[in-house]
Write a structure and sequence with these properties.
globular, about 80 residues, four-stranded mixed beta sheet, about 20% strand, alpha+beta
Length: about 80
């Protein structure tokens, strides 16, 4: 997916919710913490969140283990 394509997967109004970390795009649609595409600290689905999840999140990237991978983020 391109960043532009991914941005449409923002979890709003029943949309699928995707987040990208380290170039991998994860489907977080069915994760309660991402309800309606929003997560704590102002994080929103449809975005590339490597910095936020790996360096600022208390749980880090481990929280994404087991999440469905839907593709790779390309430039």
């Amino acid at each position: 997916l391109t960043a532009r394509q991914q941005s449409s997967y923002n979890g709003k109004e029943g949309q699928t919710a995707y987040v990208a970390v380290d170039g991998v795009v994860y489907d977080v649609t069915n994760v309660e913490a991402w309800k309606d595409g929003e997560h704590k600290n102002g994080l929103t689905a449809g975005n590339e969140l490597t910095e936020e999840i790996t360096n600022q999140s208390p749980h880090g990237i481990k929280v994404l283990e087991g999440m469905p991978i839907v593709g790779e983020l390309v430039e």
